[in-house]
Amino acid sequence: MEEFDVRAQRLAALALLGFLLFSYPLLAAFNVEASVFGIPVLYAYFFVAWAALIALMALVVERRE
Amino acid sequence: MLATWTVVFISFCYLGLLFAIAYYADERADAGRSVIASPYIYSLSLAVYATAWTFYGSVGRAAENGVGFLPIYIGPTLMIALWWLVMRKILRISKQNRITSLADFIASRYGKSALLGGVVTVIAVIGILPYISLQLKAVSASFTTITGGVPGADTALWVALILAAFTVLFGTRHLDASEHHEGMVAAIAFESLVKLIAFLAVGAWVTWGLYNGFGDIFARAAAAPELSAMLAPLGGVAGDYSSWIWLTILSMFAIIFLPRQFQVTVIENKDEKHLRKAIWLFPLYMLAINIFVLPLAFGGLLHFPKGSDADAFVLTLPMAGKQELLALVVFIGGLSAATGMVIVETIALSTMVCNDLLMPVLLRMRALRLTERRDLTGLLLGIRRGAILLILLLGYLYFRLAGEAYALVSIGLISFAAVAQFAPATLGGIFWKGGTRRGALVGLSAGFAVWVYTLLLPAFARSGWLPLSFLDTGPFGIELLKPLALFGVSGLDQITHAMIWSMLANVGGYVTVSLLRAPSVEEHRQASLFVDVFKRPREAASPRFWRGTASLRDLYDLLARFVGAQAAEEVFAAYARVRHVERSQVQADADLVHYVETQLAGVIGAASAHIMIASVVKEEALSLDEVRTMLDEASQIIVYSHRLEQKSQELERATQELRAANERLTELDRLKDEFVATVSHELRTPLTSIRAFSQILYDNPQMAGEQRAQFLAIITKETERLTRLINQVLDLARIEAGRAEWRVAGVDMRALLADALARMSQVFQERRIAVQLRTPERVPVVRADVDRIIQVVLNLLSNAAKFCEPGRGRVEIGLIEEGGFLRVDVRDNGPGVDARDREIIFDKFRQAGRSPAGGSGLGLHICRRIVEHFGGRIWVTSGGGKGSCFSFTLPCADATLSRQAA
What we know:
The structure holds 2 protein chains of 2 kinds.
Chain A: H1 6-21, H2 26-30, E1 35-36, E2 39-40, H3 41-62
Antiparallel strand pairs in A: 1-2
Helix pairs in contact in A: 1-3
Chain B: H1 4-30, H2 39-46, H3 52-65, H4 71-81, H5 87-97, H6 102-109, H7 114-147, H8 155-171, H9 182-210, H10 213-223, H11 241-257, H12 259-267, H13 274-290, H14 293-303, H15 313-320, H16 324-364, H17 377-401, H18 408-419, H19 422-431, H20 437-462, H21 469-472, H22 494-516, H23 521-531, E1 548-549, H24 552-563, H25 565-579, H26 590-604, H27 606-616, E2 618-619, H28 624-699, H29 705-737, E3 745-747, H30 749-766, E4 770-774, E5 782-784, H31 786-803, E6 810-818, E7 821-828, H32 859-869, E8 873-878, E9 884-891, H33 895-901
Parallel strand pairs in B: 4-6
Antiparallel strand pairs in B: 1-2, 3-5, 6-7, 7-9, 8-9
């Protein structure tokens, strides 16, 4: 059916993944005073995870079925 | 510091540029060549989400608690992942129902309720006021910062008035039946680019110009004791995890339900397909504009003394570094962010105020006699312009009353919490058919009331307009009703507290009241239109449930009053075109009434349109059962019509095949007639001469012996010709009917040619024609019928003999293998064949101009049928008077076999 096609399901799964990535307890695991390449771990985690999520979304919507 | 007039002048130049862009885009749209019909422009226009809040406030928020600015952008990213499910549906519904605003959407869903539309509008306007005041505050503050301030001038008021004038010029120059503002969208997309570039520029300058990259800034921050707590802020300065999650959810709702987001995402959308690119481009934009927020925040904290205004760091940092040009770019970037928001937001809100709040009321006031006025376009525009001015002035008022006690982000979050109230009614409305008008009304009102009590009133209290005891001890000293700790629930931050209570009231009210009473007819019908939008074919109009009467004249007049006579005429003409009828034959039936209503809804909203249509249409009420039956019938009919369509397609295909077959038959019949006619003619010629000569012989028994012998010879010859002709006709008939017997075997062409020549040697000798046969040593075998191929060769040889001049004739027979084919050439030095005859001599009964008597005109045709049957080709080449060369080819059998056989 058009409304719940494969793409919609994959994107919904990504939304769920994103929600897990940016909530307790994963955030707590990175909420430490340390740094990677001079950047605090928490901040680095936010931007890397965010970018990865966007890349996955792009992959899902742009892929030809 | 920059001179005040420089900044003012450049700001106006910038606004002028925006206007020029908008004007150009509008012109292009009128010419039918839209500049905004692109997924990239669409994505950029969505970035109107990033306002002065993002531009100035994020840094302020980050300087306070490190990561607190992030949920505002991560929430939307998560929601956008769900857009394929949610927004695609909202888009489809809105396009089918010509929705003009969020209020229109909700009102339409719940039975085109004018009351509900009005409630949504009131909530939206009041809820958004803090947000607009935020923009005014940011622009006036940044102006004061960059110029040092103008003594005695109320900058915020001036900003409000200038923006109001600009928005009026921008968004309400004329009334568009489709409620599209292409110029506005183009300008907004441009502003999104400007603010992104400005922010990245200042971010890059602070990171690499003022400091030595990200690592340097963070290392210094870690070294500063008062900042180190911000490097792992969650659970500490950034609040606990539950407030983090609530901020994320709040932003998820905001990206859909902020009136300006709904405007650019849904109303201004040109093509549903643009959603695809926007799903990743827009989050990418948000990621990009946030990369430098933390370096800017830490850079500012390290650079300025404690207690500086962190909301202004973006501007004060380059000014402190004497980068005046950069500061100006930043100011323009901030101006872009703020103006973009104000323009779209006020246009969206003014549409709501006009269509969903004022028009339904005005139209119902019989004393105004509006329903009888001839032209209402001016009134509509006037209301919208007034609404824009009013909203901005109210925003200014809020800024004066309550805005100064809060940081930018805190002001904005109050608005987010207000628009989140639309989520249950809208999301419930598109996925759940059970939601009713009463449920939505109760849910929205309850949620909004809680919002006012827990967020708006405390804001006034903090600014000193209500006694502070209202916050500390509750109204009238009732502790349980303390607005920041309702029913004794404390320990939550203000936003989380307000969200939990308001959502509880909203969702609870919506669901409970919806379940208490069954939906009405109109609600049921609209619910199925919205929830099942994907179940109907895209082009199919919505099903009709209407029984009533209307007059064509009334409908036309009604439309003309709101869109003008010319546009109304165009609408009716378009309707006639779609229905494939003449303009004069348009009937005032259910279809037309619905059509006019949707057109009207595009101008004044669904609820108002419904009222207007009701004023000219005498509608008969339908019972719920009738509607249910009609719905069932309608879906049945859709299924049937689908099947019918399939059947008719099949039928059409069959018809086409039949027609082709019939054409073929007709052609064959014509050929047969022609054939019979020709054959009769060919038979009659020899028969006539036989009969004539026999008659002479019969009538003259005393004829001289010599002459008698001559006549008898003619008769014999004609008889032979007759026999040959009949044989060939029979032969051809067998071949054409596919009844000929083909005895296929391996044929050695050298032997075959020698055999054929031997049979013809008598003829050649009689005519004293020299014959030469040239064959190679070895040739491959061909698979064919020996007798048939001999027939071909004999035919060619006898033709050659016939056309050669006796005594001087020469015939050469050649055999060549080339390209997997064996080619036989029969070359003579007769008169040759004219170029124009070379094709037709192979047709039935066709002979070249100068043919000696005796040919039936069938021989070469039979040859061609035979050669083609075995996969070969036959043709003639000729050099005019230098004789002709008949050639035919036959495909060789498997090469290895042929070597052995040869």
